[in-house]
């Protein structure tokens, strides 16, 4: 059986075009004229069909390769060849792009080399397309047009193409509107000419030599043949499922990384136009929507995530109503946001929690007496305010607890902003007490009270919730013994505090009743090790045991 090399045919005056799609693979049986690959320049895309039927033996191109006339696309084992065996064969006429670029056809006389007056731009030779519909107008009166800039997009049932301008100038008047049917030679626009473009006689003459397909083809005009609308996989037609958009829109989308297949076109016949790509990009940037790839990567805020992105088995789907009455309630906005953050932090940080107790008997006595003395001031000193002050001291002694990971580096922060978890009707919020190192316990208590109130009233500003270098989560007013708080990335540690209670503590001679505060310090093992964490807790315990140490 004969083998044939299938080559890129005469594709007009495209020098090198990129392979953007492989439409067949090794082993495929292809028919004569079946499209093999799609190539694209900056203005046009076209499919290269097979000149013979057979089985694909070897692909000679891959995505991204640049090809030109004569490049071998693939090797085919011909079956009842349409061409002579072992002979390099150019594809049949259909896709041979009539290479003229923007030359106005016979109907329009060749433009002079330089024009100052009005210039007519007409539909060039578009092969044997008749009565093609204008589906997109890409310019407006007053626009300054460059030579070869696309003016309109026309579409038949099998292909679409952009019609470029043959001259540069200012657009005075458009002679067509969306829905009009046009043919070769029809007037599209009037320009106030600046200079003639490729419509200069030499250019106009050259490429028209290429044969225009005998078969109704997608023989494309100039710089413009393109993605077809037709579902049929005809030569030059788009394969089923390929987004319906012009080459320039496809290029625009590719530059922005927009997955065209996820867009709904608002143009005629559902065609994707530039506005659709822009609207999709805006929606993604504002967070109003996600691409499928983003959705697959983003861990879901709640149990709704299927774990696929982590290679986990799917989340169990249970019809709870089968077992009893249920009520479904959407998560609130704050829960959704904090849920996504907590999940990321829980999964991505190799976190370890050290539990410890510290003796706050004397500190609590001091706090109670201070509050009694200051009863009239209206400011109540809270245990959390002492904890914040003690933590600043410990963070200064162990600076890696006040750092953040940045790639392979640690960023040490020479400021001490302490976040504290606040329970609010809408969910967990973390206001940040700024510059805690510069403030006394009274001022911290007062500011904390104000921030906690704002949090509960839903009035915290973004600035009041950002910049923390370390966080404390206190459940002391509620209860519990220990817990394992989740680090608030990009911080590297968080202190959990539970309810203090009187306990018998052995002093070497006897058990003494002491008020013991349970501490749970969670730390990022990439930055901190267990010994440092144990030292941090021990030091914190010493300060809380005797607050005068803060002064040392
Ligand atoms: N041990 C024993 N009692 C404590 C205590 C502790 N560690 N900490 C506070 N208390 C006491 C207080 O002294 C106060 O008692 P009095 O009214 O008799 O004086 C009472 O508990 C209530 O304190 P508080 O909670 O109002 O004040 P706070 O400064 O301790 O906390 C705030 C403020 C905003 C942190 C707190 O209201 C809050 O929201 N805590 C929940 C934080 C949270 O949800 N963490 C979990 C995060 S992970 O989901």
Structural descriptors:
single chain; 552 residues; alpha+beta; 7-stranded mixed β-sheet; 4-stranded antiparallel β-sheet; 9 helices; elongated; binds oxidized coenzyme A
How many β strands by DSSP?
27
Strand content: 25-35%
Helix amount, in percent? 10-25%
Distance between the termini: 92 Å
Gyration radius, in Å: 36 Å
Number of helices: 9
Q: Give the structural class.
A: alpha+beta
Bound molecule types: oxidized coenzyme A
What's the story with the biggest beta sheet?
7 strands, mixed
Overall geometric form: elongated
Q: Regions with pLDDT < 50 over 5+ consecutive residues?
A: 81-115, 196-241
Mean pLDDT: 81
SSE order and pairing:
Elements: E1 3-7, E2 17-22, E3 29-30, E4 35-40, E5 45-49, E6 54-59, E7 66-67, E8 72-78, E9 118-122, E10 132-137, E11 144-145, E12 150-155, E13 160-164, E14 167-174, E15 181-182, E16 187-196, H1 201-205, H2 247-256, H3 274-285, H4 292-297, H5 333-348, E17 351-359, H6 361-373, H7 383-397, E18 403-406, E19 409-412, E20 418-420, E21 422-424, E22 427-429, E23 432-433, H8 441-456, E24 470-474, E25 493-497, E26 501-506, E27 511-524, H9 530-545
Helix pairs in contact: 7-8, 7-9
This protein binds oxidized coenzyme A.
What does this structure look like?
There is one protein chain. The chain is α+β, with helices and mostly antiparallel strands and 552 residues long. Helix content is 20%, strand content 26%. It has 9 helices and 27 strands. Strands 17, 20, 23, 24, 25, 26 and 27 form a 7-stranded mixed sheet that branches. Helix 7 crosses helix 8 and helix 7 packs across helix 9. About 15% of the residues have low confidence. Oxidized coenzyme A binds next to helix 7, strand 21 and strand 24.
């Amino acid at each position: 059986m004969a083998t044939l090399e299938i080559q890129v045919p005469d594709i007009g005056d495209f020098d090198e075009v990129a392979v953007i799609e492989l439409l067949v693979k090794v082993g495929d049986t292809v028919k004569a004229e079946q499209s093999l690959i799609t190539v694209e320049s900056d203005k046009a895309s076209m499919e290269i069909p097979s000149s013979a039927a057979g089985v694909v033996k070897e692909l000679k191109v891959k995505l991204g390769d640049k090809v030109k006339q004569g490049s071998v696309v693939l090797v085919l084992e011909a079956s009842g060849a349409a061409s002579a065996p072992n002979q390099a064969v150019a594809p049949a006429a259909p896709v041979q792009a009539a290479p003229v670029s923007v030359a106005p056809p016979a109907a329009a006389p060749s433009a002079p080399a330089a024009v100052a007056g009005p210039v007519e731009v007409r539909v060039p030779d578009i092969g044997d397309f008749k009565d093609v519909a204008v589906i997109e107008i890409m310019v407006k009166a007053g626009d300054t047009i460059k030579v070869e800039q696309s003016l309109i997009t026309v579409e038949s049932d099998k292909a679409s193409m952009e019609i470029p301008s043959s001259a540069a100038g200012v657009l005075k008047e458009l002679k067509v509107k969306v829905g009009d049917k046009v043919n070769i030679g029809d007037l599209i626009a009037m320009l106030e000419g600046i200079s003639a473009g490729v419509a200069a006689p030499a250019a106009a003459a050259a490429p028209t030599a290429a044969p225009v397909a005998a078969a109704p083809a997608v023989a494309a005009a100039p710089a413009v043949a393109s993605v077809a609308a037709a579902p049929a996989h005809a030569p030059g037609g788009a394969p089923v499922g390929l987004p319906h958009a012009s080459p320039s829109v496809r290029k625009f989308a590719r530059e922005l990384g927009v997955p065209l297949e996820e867009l709904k076109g608002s143009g005629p016949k559902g065609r994707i136009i530039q506005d659709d790509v822009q609207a999709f990009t805006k929606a993604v940037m504002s967070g109003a929507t996600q691409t499928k790839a983003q959705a697959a990567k983003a861990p879901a805020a709640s149990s709704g995530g299927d774990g696929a992105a982590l290679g986990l088995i799917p989340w169990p789907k249970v019809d709870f109503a089968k077992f009893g009455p249920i009520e479904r309630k959407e998560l609130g906005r704050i829960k959704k946001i904090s849920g996504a953050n907590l999940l990321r932090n829980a999964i991505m940080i190799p976190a370890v929690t050290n539990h410890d107790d510290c003796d706050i008997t004397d500190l609590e006595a001091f706090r109670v007496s201070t509050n009694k003395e200051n009863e009239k001031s209206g400011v109540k000193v809270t245990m959390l305010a002492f904890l914040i002050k003690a933590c600043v001291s410990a963070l200064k002694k162990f600076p890696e607890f006040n750092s953040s990971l940045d790639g392979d580096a640690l960023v040490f922060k020479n400021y001490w902003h302490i976040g504290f978890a606040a329970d609010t009707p809408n969910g967990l919020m973390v206001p940040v007490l700024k510059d805690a190192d510069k403030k006394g316990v009274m001022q911290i208590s007062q500011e904390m009270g104000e921030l906690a109130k704002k949090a509960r009233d839903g009035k915290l500003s973004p600035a009041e919730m950002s910049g923390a270098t370390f966080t404390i989560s206190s459940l002391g007013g509620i209860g519990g013994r220990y817990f394992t708080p989740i680090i608030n990335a990009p911080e590297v540690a968080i202190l959990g505090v539970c309810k203090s209670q009187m306990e018998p503590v052995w002093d070497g001679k006897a058990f003494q009743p002491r008020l013991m505060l349970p501490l749970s310090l969670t730390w990022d093992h990439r930055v901190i090790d267990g010994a440092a964490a144990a030292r941090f807790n021990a030091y914190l315990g010493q300060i809380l045991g005797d607050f005068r140490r803060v002064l040392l």
